[in-house]
Fold this sequence. Notes:
The complex is a heterotrimer. Chain B has helices at about 1-10, 15-55, 60-65, 80-110, 115-125, 130-145, 155-175, 180-190, 195-205, 205-225, 225-230, 265-270, 275-310.
Amino acid sequence: MEAHIAEIPVEKQAIRTSLSPRLVPRLKEKAIELLLQLAAFTSVAITLGIVGVLAYESFHFFQQVSVVDFLTDRQWTPLFADAHYGILSLVSGTLVTTAVALLVAIPMGSLIAIYLSEYASRSLREFVKPVLELLSAVPTVVYGYFALLFVTPALKQIWSDLPGFNMLSAGLVIGFMIVPYVSSVSEDAMRAVPVYLREGAFALGATRMQTALRVVFPSALSGITAAYVLGVSRAIGETMVVAIAAGMQPTLTLNPLEPAATMTAYIVQVSLGDLPHGSVGYQTIFATGLMLLLITLLFNIAGHALKKRYRQVY
Amino acid sequence: MRLKNGIAKYIKSTALQRRIMRRKGLDRFFAFEGLFVMGVALLVLFALVGQLAADGAGRLSWQFLTSFPSRFPAQAGILTAWIGTLLVMLLTALTAIPLGIGAAIYLEEYAAKSWLTEVIEINIANLAGVPSIVYGLMALGLLVYELHLGQSFLTAGLTLGMLILPMVIIATREAIRSVPPAVREAAYALGATKWQTVRDHVLPYSMGGILTGMILALSRAVGETAPLITVGALSFIAFLPHPPWQGTFPFVSFEWLFDPFTVMPIQMFNWVSRPQEEFHVNAAAAGLILLAMSLAMNAVAIVIRARFRKRIHW
Amino acid sequence: MKALDVSQTVLKAESRGLNFFYGVAQALHGLTLPVYDRCVTALIGPSGCGKTTYLRCFNRMHDLYPGNRYEGAVILYPDRVNIVGAEVDPIEVRMRIGMVFQKPNPFPKSIYENVAYGMRIRGVSSKADLDMVVERALQEAALWGEVKDRLQASAMNLSGGQQQRLCIARALATSPELLLFDEPTSALDPTATSRIEELVTELKQKVAIVIVTHNMQQAARVSDHTAFMYEGRLVEFDRTEKMFTNPSVKLTEDYVTGRFG
Lengths: 314, 314, 261
């Protein structure tokens, strides 16, 4: 199609390619961008620092301790004359406290999330959410105090032979600590489920509970998984509560009523002492740290895969 | 025809009525359960605060705030601890805030979509999930031994700064993203450069969200204990750091940066892990002050968020 | 092809064979179009025809987003510079060509600061100079009388129509040579709309104006020339009276008579 265009009444001359040069402002802009870029790269540098330090010290550690012993020995006594380096004793402690914590946090967090998103009035939600978030604002060392000097004595009323240090009270307290992580992220995910899905269920005569459990919860599963993964990461990495309340004795046990050191508690224990830089004892905390990081990473990758699987597009 | 009659009969039947009643009952029970669990979580928070107050409130006194630590629980105080916390927080803020805001601006306003940007984004998300004690290990290997910063205020501030950096970046990005693109376009259309647009518009309009994020991140740092134990916080410091000023030119002194440090949570941890009950009272009192610090910061954050939300609504 | 009577008019800008791409998708196809000084040029056409895309080429707004690409030329007179050329700094272009957007987008600052901002980033900082510019621009935008007693009040508290006039004042403060309007009344009520339209007709005494509108009555009311676009191409360009009474192309006639669009 031929456009109908008027003639242009100006003599056509060569076209220039620039207005006026703005060299100095342009250089200043470039410099600022470079600075900001540098700031963004520090986060990458931190990661490289973490991986580098852990890998470097662990490398020296594994030159003296075989990987097989590390993964299969049933004892962890690196500071004794008869040194054993079986990380399983520490991993078991971490897994038990984490499991106890999740048994508290996941049902509680999910129920709270469902209640806040599907039942609660706007004003109740606006009030409860920040108050609940205070639970995660309490310093962990305060939770440690609470676990050791409140929860354990209370549990002793039930099990009178419960030791003063035990994984159960540490795990329970971590559980309460991470409830807001689980509930807040899950609730956001559930509230992102479009109203028309709920209306569909209500129109069929479903109650709120049926709608929440059969429509909203499954639709929000991707986001809820992310909430659980966040909770798991926090529980695995939690240090002060277990260092204070679960004891510092590495023990290969799955019984939450016993005292046992977690990976994090062991790192704290060694750091409190005065091990010479460069000794095997000093390197053990980096090997332990590497293990901790790998386990956290594993859960995150698994969570990411699940999250992808459950992703819904509205 | 018979089937139709059957349905009509069923709808009117008491069987359906009963079913509906039962489902409604279940629904109510489920709602009650949500409310109950929420109550339990809040109760734990109150129990924790109550326990701490019951144990420690009596110990709070001017003497407690102005005394050095001591072997005698009744004479011990938290002078070095709270001064240490203030100084470490100052360094943490100076590290994390400029870097975090810079990185967030870069990622939101400057970075083109590329694999490099992708790497930075994934990296930040993963850093946020790394257990805090792992940052401590990195700082121990890198800052204390490689860079010879020693077990000092500087090391502590940098460690916590790196720890909260991902939080600061994530919060700032979210705040920046809430500024509508139309406002940016308005500035660009007037001939503003990218940096002018960011400085004069994007940052001021997202300041509420940014400030909230900063304070929440710092409140997390205030309670952080584990990474500071690994970089060698001392729990018994009976002298104050060098003052940041001096009598001769240039009148400011940076000697304090390299002094040994302690902070409130470290002091509390030290006291709670002692067997004597008198020290537990000190721990509770220190815990109360620590809790007050972090809850106050959270409250301030909530107020700021509400005020800025009222001032600017798009 | 009959030439326009252009004895009184001077060319302010023109596009020559302008192609524009969002990534790989071509949105504009060989647009050649003049813009005359002290005239209002209206761009009309159904939604998605590329009129806003075309308008945003004039102040290089597309440079803000990655993957966009221009081909061809948009020439600004009297400098005879191709303002979509890669060597031309988009900031420099925007310093000379103002824009008013579809939805009023004042900065959440005071009325005064909104209008003064353009001059501030041009390095003007003296209070007296800024005061003068702010008053002139607000008067030109017919807003001075309504706001002169509350210049320090937040611009967000103005009504929609006032906000849009404030945006016009903000653009006028920097004395642009060409002012772009992107459907400036689509978010406004009829009263506010007619005030903006009056303003546009007055402003053409000082500045060349290009206005995108999907309201054909508006184009007929305010413009001197009209370009009809369809699917990223120019269909017809002529004097507005001619376009609306006796268009040369059948498609134009179908559109202006409301047979589609």
